[in-house]
Structure formats: C-alpha cells, structure tokens
Design goal:
heterotrimer; A alpha/beta (207); B alpha/beta (611); C alpha+beta (52); A: 207 residues; alpha/beta; B: 611 residues; FAD/NAD(P)-binding domain; Alpha-Beta Plaits; 4 domains; 5-stranded parallel β-sheet; 15 helices; binds iron/sulfur cluster; binds zinc ion
Chain lengths: 207, 611, 52
C-alpha cells in the first residue's frame, strides 16, 4: 500500500488536494516559472484542483482558496507561496473559515527558500519549486486533522529589568489592571537612566 | 522586587512558573526611613559604583538619593563581618531597628501568563583601545563618568572638574564612536550605538550652559541627528560655538607636567592634519549588550542577533515579540536606543503582552507527542531525553505516556523510541518518509538533502531569502520542529533513496528552543557517522551545522559548501550506498512488521481476556 | 571525565585535539573552517587497555 493510500484509509475518505501557486507579484514569478509549476502540480497524485494567483495572501487570493474548497470539495490544501513562519497562521485561518481543519493545510516555501535565493538560476529554481510542491503535496496526503487545546492564561506578568523600559511596561500593565512582578537585579530600580544628568532632545532631568 | 534575580522559568505561554531569588539586603526595607544614621557610623569606605567610582560610599548605603525602594542596604563584601559581628555599629545606630545581619535570601515562586524582558544594556569599556589611553591618563574620561560629574547629584555636586587636579577644564574634546562602528571588528563593535551622537550634543550644551567660556570640540565620523528635535539641538550646539571636526584622532598623548592632552587628527573635510591641546577628553562610549545577557537568554529560550542583543520574532512586523510565545522584549536589551524609544517600545511590549492576558486563554499548537501503549515496552528512553519531563513511565506496567500540556512537540522522544511507539502530531514519521520519497524519487543525485529546524536553520534560510543572498539551487529542505526530531532512520532513508549529501541542521546550543534537545542531535549524528563508516560509506556525506535564525549568510555559505561536496560524490558511490543500505532497510522493515504483529496479537489477547 | 580527544572535521579534513567528554555541553566547530561537522575519534581499545 502506498503512503497516500494508507492515509486515505486512515481518514476513511478520498483525498482531494487543492494546490494554490502564488506569483507574489514578481517576487516568485520573476524567477520561478509559476505557470510550469501549476501545470506540474496538476499531474501530482490526489490533486484535483490547481489555482495560480497573483497574491494568494490578499483577500482575492484567499477567496480563491475558499471558493475551490467549496467547488472541488477539497479536504487538503497546499499553498505554494512564502515561508510558513510568516503566513501559516493566515492560511490556516483561511481554510478554517471554510470548515476545513487548519492542520490539513500545508505550505511550500517558493519565495524565501527559492525565488529570492536563486535569482540567477531560473531553471534550477523552477525545478526546485516543483520539488517543493511535490513534497508538500506528499505531506498533505499524510496530514491528519488535529484539535488544538485551549489553556487559560494566568492574569499576571513578570517584567525582568527595572530600567526605564521595564518601569514603563510595568506601569502600563498595572494600569490595565494586571498583577505585575517587576524584578530588578540591583538594589534600586532606575537602571542607566537614573545615572544620567539631563536627557536630549529637551534637556530635562532624568529622574 | 528590587535586588532580586530570576533563577528559573518553567512552563509555557499563559502559564509560566518563575522562581525569583530576593537577595538579602540586611536592612528591612519596609521599616527603613533612609535616615542615614547607619551610614554615618559605618567605618568602611568603598568606591561608589553609581558615581562610576568618582566618589565613595559606606558599606551600608543608599544607592542614590532617589532610589526606589528608598531603603539602605548592606554590602556584605565590604562589611567588616557579621558572623561573628566584627563591628555592629550600624545596628546600634539604627533607631528603627531595621538592621538584620541574619537576613537570608528569599525564594519566591510566581505564576505569570507573560514575561517582558527589559534587561537593558551595559556601557562599552574603552580600556582595550590603546590609542585613547583611558586607563593611563587621568583626564581621559567616559561619557558615563561625564554624566556623574556634571550632575548636581553627582560626585562633585555638578562641578565638572578634571580628575588630575580637580580644576574646571577650559578646553574639552569629545571623541565619538568609541567602541562603535569599528568595521575591522577586532575591538569594539561594528554597529552604531544610536545614542552617543545626540548624547554628546547634549553634553556640549550642558557644558556651555554651566561654563559659558569653555571650548568644546567634537571629533566625529558622522553626526547622526535623525530623531524629532534632534537636528535643532545639533544646530543649537553649533551656534553655541562648539567645534565639530570630522575625523577621529589617531592617538592621545599627555604632557606629564600639566596632564594636558594632545590629540592628532585629520579633518577629513578639509584634509588638514594638526595637533590639538585639551584639558580633558571625553570618550563617547557605545552601548553593548548586558554582560550577563546569556543568563536570561537561556532561562527564556531567547535568541540573539550577531551583535549580542536579543532577537525579535520579525524585524519589521513583530519587533517586540520573541521566538518564545508569551515572552516580549523592549528597551536596550533589544538594541541600543534612547529613553524615548525605550519608553515607546516598552509600551508596545506591554500592549502585546496584554493581547494574551486580555484574551484570557491561548491555544497550544496540536503538535504534541503520543505513545502507542501497544508498541511501548516501557523502556523509558524517551523520558530520559524529553527536555520538559513530559513523559511519565510506569516500569511495572511496562508503558509510558505523554502529558500533553507539558509537551512542546520537539520530537526528541519520537526520534529516540526504537519501538516506533511514539507518534508526533502533525510531524509523523509517515509524513517525513512521504517527503523524502517526493524529493528524492527523481534526480536524487542532483540534490542536497537538508533537515532544518523550525526556529533557527529554517528561519536562517528565510533570512538568506529576505536578504537575497544567492546560493545554488540544489538543496531540498524538510522542516522539523527541532533538529532532535531527525530520526536516524530518516537520514538513512534519504541515503537509501540516493541522496549524495545529507545535512542535519539546527539551532546553536545556546539557542535551542527545547532547552537542550539538540544535544541529542549530536549524539545521533555521531552514531550515524559510525554506522556509515562501518558500512563502508564515507561519513563526510552526512554533515551537521548549527545555523541561527539570523545567520542567512552562514546558511548560504553552508549550502555552497554542500553543493561543492555533492559534485564530488560519484554515481558509483551513490549506487554502492543504495545497495548496502537497502539491505539494512529491508531488515529494519521486517523487524517492524514483526513488532506490529506481536502488538496486535497482544491486543486481541487482552480483549479476549476482558470479554 | 573529559579527555584529550582527536577530532576530525568532516568538511575540510582538518584534524585537531580538544578536551572531550561524551556528556559535556560544548558546541563544537572546526577551528579552521568553522564547520560543526566535527567528529571525535573513538578511544582505541588499546588505549583503554593501557590505562587499566
Ligand atoms: S516531543 Fe519533546 S517535549 Fe514532547 S514528549 Fe517528546 S521529547 Fe518531550
Ligand atoms: Zn574544518
């Protein structure tokens, strides 16, 4: 049994993957042949819809994803755009808005890891982009829906350092009604600023 | 809590447990009314650190008049001794009986939802710069010492006198960028300390205000007066007759008689080289990260940028967040900045912290580990490597389980378990094998297979992208939360699939986001090297690198190196590896299948027993 | 106990000696090329035997 089939059996449903290839204006499309990547994505196993967008993270781009989820009854989404460290939350929220578990969304990093660093090797970059999409699709086939746990937040803050920054933060937080613990290493708060005479640009006293 | 230090931080966003040590002051701060009787009788005199050592204080002292808390404190290093009591004068003198020689450090345990780090900065020590002779000549002082001399509450009650003869100097030079903007990088720092230009402009105006006849000369590289109202202040200083000379002096010499100072400098605007005579020289010293910043960094799993300041989660969009959720940074711990910027950033950090506090709850990413009791043999290896003690083992029942709320999802246990009993949520073994398959099915020989950890090396690759640092297109990256997720079998499988070179990369030791999980990465790589060698495969083909989120340069350099290496791996070599390892792999699969079968059999037996 | 151990850099081939114990908490890098792919040589059986 191939990995894809295994996953399908596990979830008891047919895999329907949608791939969204992003141009990011010319950020990606300037180097990577996104049209070729789009075509290639169509040939990948379990992929039932491929859409190319100018800016996938913008509203029209996100709407395309939502529309495709409805139209093609997608149960996995691959966004081939930029780094997940930036936009994973964006696209997770986007698919969740359409009722898909956010953990069924996977990203391929065609920008930070590809177009931006292989600007003078268009062919190599396109080949790499295809691989990255292929890898993301393969991973998507294995993804499982997951539930996040909600944990309560203790209504208190620790501020480390009692210089001018620490004092200001503490005051703000305290004013907003939270318990604040300000920890200062030295015998007195005040930090470096307390040791200054006057401060620029208005030449007022520092203490 | 003043005079306290954070010793331990446990837990996670919304639920941090913090241990704080409140150091003994030996003076009960609630009772002390700063009457100063104790200091009067104290016989010990030591240099006063608040006045930069320019005056002295007693062993029992108030750090400075406006100190908060307004309580005296005994410096036990300086005190003549309390066990047995050698002097005891202050205790006798204190009417309110707040002196307590037996006071002990106290440990407080706090529970907080968020943490803001505002640990500030230190001041550059110019001793290493031989050309400025800071320690050799009395009348060369730092800008920090200047503050304490000109301040009415300072060592000389605001009389700016030079140290050698306590005369008011008439001719004063300021030297800019001391310890900053040194591109040679051998001494001092490369970065601009941001505040020293304006600080000097301010100092010249203070001097002109206190001593209208004095002559001030500023030697600078560039005057950076970019903030609101800064240019005006700079112009005012120029109008006051302060001389600005573009060019730094090469050296300072001293007249042994008068202790006056001679500077030779080239004015790079006019090309004129000449010698100047001054009564005093102020070194406008730069800002450096706190010397003990590594401590807090470790406690809270923060990262630092190349210059040693704490790193933000994103340079533009998340300037006060850190890679650790629920922890924020502000002030000079993040980068050198002035008071206004510190206050602005502090409020920003407070606001960010409040978004979590106000919401009242946070969601934890569903990427935790789970242990399959049917496969688990209760060996406890996973519990040993878990940095968060999230695995509990029952040796008798021969089983183990994960406490989800404590699991951070590093995957160390998953990579350790040799029974295949651990499933990492959202980062399963199957998902990785599927990715390795996808990436190496075709043209494996052209690719450099790379495992990169989420927080550092993957982010480092992003950093290379953001900075547009170019490197060859051969690498194929797979993301793991921690490099400790990289199971030995993943690496072997990549070789089975024909990878010429494999890289395992993660955070530097100090940056590991799972305390010290990546130490296990090293052990696994060592074992893999041994194994490869035994099988007649060049261990060099497996590489290990630590790349931080800020090291885009290093990432690109490593990638270039790997590409060179890849080109040297021959097709025969790859074929040989595939053949040798394929046999190993078959054996492994057979072992696994057998284990699974047995587990299933056990399970059905259990069920029979139950029914 | 940490012992003088021979390390080999698997990137540039440089060999050098450094104190090493299996459980020390030290990030290692090649002194020549700064690569972290540095491999400690296993103590030879003969050495161990000699010590006894
Ligand atoms: S994934 Fe990491 S944190 Fe979670 S149980 Fe395993 S070793 Fe511990
Ligand atoms: Zn080397």
């Amino acid at each position: 049994m191939s990995n894809e089939e295994k996953a399908a059996v596990a979830t008891g449903e047919e895999l329907r993957i949608g791939v969204f290839v992003c141009d990011c204006g010319s950020n990606i499309a300037g180097t990577v042949d996104t049209a070729a990547v789009t075509e290639y994505a169509e040939t990948l196993p379990n992929v039932v819809a491929v859409v190319r967008n100018r800016y996938t993270c913008a509203d029209p781009g996100q709407n395309e994803i939502k529309k495709a989820i409805r139209e093609y009854d997608l149960n996995r989404v691959v966004v081939a755009s930029c780094t997940p460290l930036m936009h994973e939350p964006t696209f997770r929220a986007c698919v969740a808005g359409e009722g898909l578990n956010p953990y069924l969304m996977e990203m391929a990093n065609l920008r930070e890891h590809c177009s931006w660093v292989h600007g003078n090797d268009k062919e190599g970059a396109t080949a790499k982009a295809k691989d990255l999409v292929k890898s993301a699709v393969a991973r998507a086939a294995q993804l499982q829906a997951r539930e996040e746990t909600r944990v309560p937040v203790t209504q208190a803050a620790l501020v480390v350092g009692g210089g001018v920054a620490g004092i200001q933060t503490s005051l703000d937080l305290a004013e907003a009604g939270y318990q604040v613990y300000l920890v200062e290493k030295e015998p007195s708060i005040g930090g470096i600023m307390a040791a200054l005479d006057k401060t620029y640009p208005t030449m007022d006293c520092s203490i | 809590m003043a005079y306290s230090e954070v010793e331990e931080v446990d837990g996670y966003v919304g639920n941090f447990k913090v241990k704080v040590r409140k150091k003994a002051r030996y003076v009960r701060e609630e009772d002390c009314n700063s009457c100063a009787e104790c200091a009067e009788v104290c016989p010990v005199v030591v240099p006063d650190e608040f006045q930069m050592g320019l005056s002295s204080r007693k062993a029992v002292y108030l750090p400075f008049p406006q100190a908060v808390p307004a309580s005296y404190i005994i410096d036990m290093e300086a005190c003549l001794g309390t066990n047995p009591i050698a002097c005891g004068k202050c205790e006798e003198a204190c009417e309110k009986v707040c002196i307590d020689y037996d006071m002990k450090d106290e440990i407080f345990e706090l529970e907080v939802g968020v943490v803001v780090v505002a640990t500030g900065m230190d001041v550059y020590d110019p001793t290493e710069l031989d050309e400025y002779c800071y320690t050799r000549y009395d009348n060369v002082i730092t800008s920090m010492e200047f503050e304490r001399l000109i301040c009415a509450g300072g060592a000389t009650e605001g009389h700016f006198v030079r140290p050698s003869d306590r005369d008011v100097p008439q001719r004063i030079a300021f030297i800019q960028c001391v310890g900053s903007r040194n591109n040679a990088g051998d001494k001092g720092n490369r970065y601009c300390s941001n505040i020293c230009c304006m600080n000097t402009v301010k100092d010249t105006l203070l001097l002109r205000d206190h001593y209208p006849d004095c002559e001030c000369t500023v030697f600078y590289v560039d005057i950076r007066a970019f903030g609101k109202g800064f240019e005006d202040l700079y112009m005012r200083s120029r109008e006051e007759g302060v001389k600005y000379i573009r060019g730094l002096p090469g050296e300072i010499r001293q007249d042994p008689e008068t202790k006056n100072l001679f500077l030779t400098a080239e004015n790079t605007l006019t090309g004129e080289v000449r010698e100047y005579e001054f009564d005093a020289v102020v070194l406008s010293v730069g800002v450096i990260p706190r010397r003990d910043s590594a401590l807090v960094k470790k406690l809270l799993s923060l990262s630092t940028t190349g210059d040693g300041f704490y790193m933000e989660a994103h340079p533009k969009l998340k300037p006060v967040d850190t890679p650790t959720r629920g922890v924020y940074i502000c002030g000079c711990s993040e980068s050198p900045k002035d008071v206004k910027d510190s206050v602005t950033q502090a409020s920003a950090a407070a606001a960010r912290a409040m978004t979590i506090l106000n919401a009242g709850h946070v969601t934890v990413e569903a990427i935790t580990a789970a242990i399959d009791p049917a496969l688990c043999t209760g060996c406890g290896l996973c519990a040993k490597v878990c940095p968060f003690n999230a695995v509990e083992v029952d040796k008798e029942k021969k089983t183990a389980w994960v406490v989800s709320a404590m699991c951070m999802g590093c995957g160390n246990c998953g990579a350790t378990c040799n029974q295949g009993a651990v499933t990492m949520g959202h980062f399963t073994d199957d998902q990785y094998y599927a990715q390795i398959d996808a990436l190496l099915d075709e043209d494996a020989a052209d690719k450099v297979f790379t495992f990169a950890c989420n927080w550092c090396s993957y982010a480092g690759a992003d950093n290379a992208g953001i900075s547009r640092i170019q490197y060859p297109a051969s690498p194929r990256l797979v993301r793991t939360m921690c490099s400790a997720r990289v199971t030995e079998d993943f690496v072997l499988y990549a070789f089975v699939k024909g990878a010429p070179v494999v890289l395992v990369s993660g955070c530097h030791f100090a940056d590991c986001h799972y305390i010290d999980a990546n130490r296990q990465t090293v052990k696994r790589v060592y074992r893999l090297w041994d194994k490869l060698e035994k099988l007649g495969i060049r261990p060099e083909r497996l590489q290990l690198e630590w790349i931080s989120a800020a090291e885009g340069q290093k990432f690109a350099r490593v990638m270039r190196g790997l590409e060179e290496m890849r080109q040297q791996v021959t097709a025969e070599e790859v074929e040989h590896t595939k053949k040798v390892l394929a046999e190993e792999w078959e054996k492994k699969l057979a072992r696994e299948a057998k284990r699974k079968k047995k587990a299933e059999a056990d399970e059905s037996r259990d069920e029979v027993q139950v029914s | 106990m940490s012992q003088e151990t021979k390390f080999k850099c698997l990137k540039c081939g440089h060999e050098y000696v450094e104190k090493y114990a299996p459980d020390d908490d030290i990030e290692r890098a090649c002194p020549k090329c700064h690569s972290n792919s540095v491999r400690p040589e296993k103590p030879k059986k003969a050495d161990v035997a000699e010590k006894k």
